[in-house]
Amino acid sequence: MLEELKTLCSLMGVSGREKKVRDYIISQVDGCAEYSVDALGNLLVFKQGRNRAANKVMLAAHMDEVGLIITYVTDDGFLKFAPVGSVDIKVLLGRSVIIGDNTFGVVGVKPVHLLKPDEKKQIPEKDSLYIDIGAKSKDEALKSVQIGDVAHFNSDYIEFGDGLIKARALDDRAGCAVMIEMIKNEQPYDLNFAFTVQEEVGLRGAKTAAYNICPDYAIVIETTTAADIAGVEGHKRVCCLGAGAAISFMDKATVYDKELYDLAFEVAAKNNIKIQPKTAVAGGNDAGAIHNSNGGVKTLTASTPCRYIHSPSCVLKKDDLNETLRLVNAVAAEFASR
């Protein structure tokens, strides 16, 4: 699964441009299950199990990542951009990016010696930033980049410390890796998998995927903010690396079914799986579109804790990813057999 994750994190898949990620996943699941691609770009996979399921279960993870989209090229060859998804301005300053397939650039900002005293105390406005690709003019820049091209963070996959991984796009290539692993292995019951598009810009793919699959139960496999860092204590840590999968009771898009929330902890206890609550009502994920689709879907979200999410240097712990896989396997079987 870690090799899958490493490859997935090397692929560009900014929202609306998920084709490379989708094509790779197809190459991995082809021959293991039936699949189709819908008009929006979701990859829908049906995995036949040893037994027919009493309930239709949908598992979902999104293929897209946050990034930037080029909106304008200045006369002197610099690129202006808009964020695709929720990108904190602070994580952009001085970062290197790749535009399109292979155009290297650096996110630049007004140099400190030109800042006014009050500007030195403020975070730069988004409109003051630009991408420098080394072009001397607009015409030269347009030979490599076009308006509407997208950029992703230029960041390598690195394993470090006590079983930690640093990479871009762990949100949510981690969830995709879990689902690929499940599809490649025998399952006790039939399962439906949705590798969704455009989660970062409004849960759009999940809406159409849930409509097509029309499940009875759904499990969203995600990453979520871990704030277990210096100076943060108690519930404000949200979840912690090393404590297993994080289960949401509520976020900005979903109030989760209490029965399913409790069931996740019961299943984890029975199978000696590490699990923790996500102790913040914040963010949102594909569950927000899935749970109120069609006539309503009972939905659970299981997330791998991730530090520095939506940045070039997301960090998660390998053990937590494995615990998420174990939990999702067990809960999916429970939902399918109820």
Characterize the structure shown:
By secondary structure, this protein is of the alpha+beta class. The protein has 2 domains: 234 residues, 3-Layer(aba) Sandwich (Aminopeptidase), CATH 3.40.630.10; 87 residues, Beta Barrel (Elongation Factor Tu (Ef-tu), domain 3), CATH 2.40.30.40. 25% of the residues lie in helices and 25% in strands. It has 8 helices and 17 strands. The protein has an 8-stranded mixed beta sheet, sandwiched between helices. Strands 5-4-9-6-7-8 form a 6-stranded antiparallel beta sheet, with no helix packed on it. A 3-stranded antiparallel beta sheet has the order 10-11-17. A hairpin with a 3-residue loop joins strand 10 and strand 11. Helix 1 crosses helix 4. The radius of gyration is 21 Å and the shape is globular.
Please summarize what this structure is.
By secondary structure, the protein is of the alpha+beta class. It has eight helices and 17 strands.
How many alpha or pi helices? 8
Order of helices and strands: HHEEEEEEEEHEEEHEHEEHEHEEH
Strand tally is 17
Strand content: 25-35%
Read across the widest sheet, the strand sequence of neighbours is 1-2-12-3-13-16-14-15
Assembly category: single chain
CATH evolutionary superfamily of the largest domain: Zn peptidases
The radius of gyration is: 21 Å
